[in-house]
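tool_call: predict_structure(chain=1)
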Amino acid sequence: MNEKRVISASSSRFAAQLFNLITVAVMVISLTALLLGKLLASQKVGFLPVVMSLPPVMIWLAGSIFVYAGIAHHPNPRAVHFNKWAGYRFYGVMGSLVVIGPVIYGLLDGWLGLVLVLGLAVAIIVPWALFDIYKAAREPWQDMTIEVEKNE
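tool_result:
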């Protein structure tokens, strides 16, 4: 016997925005931690900006896989669409920075290179993600009724 469930419009909208919301928060936290670490670091603790700025990005890189996979199977195709493009952006930029990041970091040697690499990621990801959050908020979401199998 099948059971009908309703997925609210607000739930679909939130699913469409979730990946972008967390990505923006993590990128801003990471850049802020990098700049704060530079202000707090002395010459003896020069690695502090790196230690403060990279963990949020690394943790989100791992956790985003679960968020992405969870939303990828959402019944609303528009939520899946927004999630797909948010993932393309984030993983594409992070993957590209693995290739070009060491070159930039090597040319500028030191924390300035790290600021440029992380700043480049923020400059690419954040405005685009904010625009997608805005687009998802303006989308005409509707409640959905789905049928799920009832386990007895």
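agent: The CA atoms of residues 65 and 87 lie 9 Å apart. Proceeding to next step.
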